[in-house]
Amino acid sequence: MVKKEYQIIANNFELAGRASSDIKKTLKALEYSKAMIKRICAASYESEINVVIHSVGGYMTFEIINDYVELNIYDDGPGIFDIQLAMTEGYSTANRIANTNGFGAGMGLTNMKRLSDVMEINSDQFGTHIRLIFVVGDLDALS
Ligand SMILES: Nc1ncnc2c1ncn2[C@@H]1O[C@H](COP(=O)(O)OP(=O)(O)OP(=O)(O)O)[C@@H](O)[C@H]1O
Ligand SMILES: [Mg+2]
């Protein structure tokens, strides 16, 4: 069993991706398949960037529990105004600074949904909590 926690700082593009890199390193050391690592780290990266560009800061927990990996991402406000709309491909409220850094295509949440086996979003004006579960599946064992 593994449990790690990472702080995510709003608007800090230099440190963005740090949590995902450490998760990748940990999963590699534990000999998870490339496919499983890619799935988890692409999703964790998207969620990390969302905290950086859309919130005032937060943190992510990374846990390995038996045959699944769980990520929980918490941030402080302003929250996702309309979750269904936010889940639409191409919808984005990212600002110009985020755009300049290469973000804001409106694909992050959609990709997280596709990459994970379970995705739960809870959000109000005080903040957002996203829970992601990744189960080692048949496809994950192939590469
Ligand atoms: N943690 C969050 N807090 C507040 N709003 C959020 C948060 N995450 C996502 N959103 C809202 O949902 C929209 C869609 O998010 P999504 O990650 O799909 O796209 P994006 O971050 O705008 O662009 P991309 O992920 O492609 O760089 C965001 O533009 C934002 O309005
Ligand atoms: Mg995003």
From TrEMBL:
Residues 43-131 form the Histidine kinase/HSP90-like ATPase domain. It holds the Pfam family HATPase_c. InterPro entries: HATPase_C_sf, HATPase_dom. This is Histidine kinase/HSP90-like ATPase domain-containing protein. It comes from Mariniplasma anaerobium.
